[in-house]
Amino acid sequence: MTVTTQHDPPPPTAEPPDPGDLGAMFDAYARDLLRYATRRVGEQLAEDVVAQTFLIAYEQRHRFDSARGGLLPWLYGICGNLLRREHRTEKRALRATAAAALAVTADEDAPDARSAERVDAQRTVARVATALARLPRRQREVLLLFAVAELEYAEIASALGIPLGSVRSALHRARTKIKSALSGGSR
Known about the structure:
By secondary structure, the chain is mainly α.
């Protein structure tokens, strides 16, 4: 027998919560949305974005159409819309991460192997952050929904309201640009 407390997420075989049940919706999906939003805009802002996501979802619950997709992709769509509003902050954070990583690597001249590995990792973080900041908005959103939120292509299409082929294309282009940045290219 499994006991579910008020704060435990529902078992994976349970039906998705009703959009009118704010508590159940929050319990089921807040962790996923918070993880995604935190990686996009940082912990403090992510909490506000996720709270706004659930508030908007509850206020607009009449607009949810289960025939178009599941509740989680719909919530990711709302969250993505809110994150777009914060996109300038996100780009500034990525640029700051890249600059900070480069500044730290410039200061480290220690000869030991662990220091060298740390410097290499910081340079990689800087290159990835710079590449993410340079991606067009759609490619960045698709890549982050795939890599961070671990959504399937169809769920990404539903969350962003774009065709499945556009998801595949945007993901391919974003991956190519990130690989190029990691290999030192300037694509």
